[in-house]
Amino acid sequence: MAGNTSHPGASVTSRVLAVLGAFDADHRALTLTQIADRAGIPVPTAHRLVRELAGGGALERRDHGTYVVGQLLWDLGLLAPSQAGLREIASPFLHDIYGATLATVHLAVREGAEVLYIARLSGHQSVPVVSTVGSRLPMHCTGVGKVLLAFAPAEIQQQVFGNLTRVTAYTITQPGRLEHELGRVRETGFAQTHEEMSLGACSVAVPVMASGTAVASVGIVVRSLRTDRDRLVAALTVAAKGIERSIGP
Q: Which residues form the IclR-ED domain (predicted)?
């Protein structure tokens, strides 16, 4: 149970933290009863705290009665030294890519078995892009996600292989085929998608490496990769190397 505060004398602060701690990678949407149970507090207390947190933007109530983490917590999370530092370091390189391509540019990191988008520059082309800053998407059908998955620990890869949800008709849902593609990513240094996340959109991405680990991925979303893929990979690679040098060893 997350953040158990059922013992007497628990402060209001500890109960608020217990409510927020009820959410994790496996429990992203919870009912009020589930929040109370996981936080170890009575339902009436959970109701009052959740209502106040939702009013302040820390939680968000969905139409079907469940609650999810709100935008306020995401905005605060961006102030954490790790993500804020990475965004600040990467910003000029992302703008260089954007200036050279006028395409939508992403900076993403892995969060559990999903890809978390921490920066985005919107392109001029009319290309369907479903990502937003702070959004989490499947790793197996996004360019930045495939890159991070290719260098992820084996247990994360197996978790993803066990849940290859089909998003479009072109999404890879066969573990063997995806495993082969991840091997190619490690060999060539880039990943690509062809309408696997949204129809009419292709992407290409490369890793940002530090101490032998892919700490982030930079990617571009375009209509097609038929003619410009190599040029886009080259631009992304230059940017990624610049970010790596700025991060240091």
A: 72-249
**Of all helices (H) and strands (E), which one includes residue 241?**
helix 229-247
Where is 9: in which H helix or E strand? none
Place of tokens 């009020």: 32
Residue with more model confidence, 2 or 125: 125
Tell me, yes or no, whether 123 and 30 share the same domain: no
- 3-class DSSP state for residue 208? strand
Our count of domains for the chain comes to 2
What is the predicted pLDDT for the residue at 30?
93
Calculate the alpha carbon distances from 132 to 33, 127, 129, 135, 144 in Å: 30, 14, 8, 5, 13
- Quick one: 142 and 179 in the same domain? yes
18 and 102 belong to one structural domain = no
Per-residue pLDDT of 147-191, as tens digits, reads 999 999 999 999 999 999 999 999 999 999 999 999 999 999 999
CA distance 9 to 94: 50
What CA dihedral angle connects 170, 98, 149 and 72, to 10 degrees? Answer: -100
The CA angle 143-146-147, to the nearest 5 degrees, is 90
Q: Find the domain containing 61 and state its range.
A: 12-75
For the stretch 193-239, pLDDT in tens is 999 999 999 999 999 998 888 999 999 999 999 888 999 999 999 99
The pLDDT score that the predictor gives to residue 79 is 61
